[in-house]
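QA checklist item 7 of 12: single-chain prediction sanity check.
[x] sequence parsed
[x] length recorded as 124
[x] structure emitted
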Amino acid sequence: QVQLVESGGGLVQAGGSLRLSCAASGRTFSSYTIGWFRQAPGKEREFVAAISRSGGMTSYAQSVKGRFTISRDNAKNTVYLQMNSLKVEDTAVYYCAAGGTIVRLTTTGGVDYWGKGTLVTVSS
C-alpha cells in the first residue's frame, strides 16, 4: 500500500511555471508507476502524465506535451511535475496517482491509489 500527498499548487499568471510534488509513504514506492491527473470544475478527471517505476519511460497527454515534465526520485519517494508555459485552461485540481503500468495509468480505471489533490489556478 502507498499513501500519496501532493504539494506545490497555487496561483500563477498565464505563461508562468509551477512545480508539483507527490510524496509517497511506504517502502514499495519504487514498485509503482506514478501519474498525475487533473480535474477542472464541471469536467471529468483526465490524465496528464505518468512515469514508469525506474523513471525510464514517460507518457503525456497531448495537451501538456512539451510544456510539462514528469520526473521521480525513488530515493526520496517523490515524483515531480514541472509545469511551464501555463495556460488558463490548465486550472484544475491536480491529483497524484499510483498504478501498475504506464498504459493502465493513462485512465482513471488503472489507478490503484489516489492522493487528495492540490489546486492550481492560472490567471489571465
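[x] summary fact logged: The chain has a mean pLDDT of 95.
[ ] second reviewer sign-off
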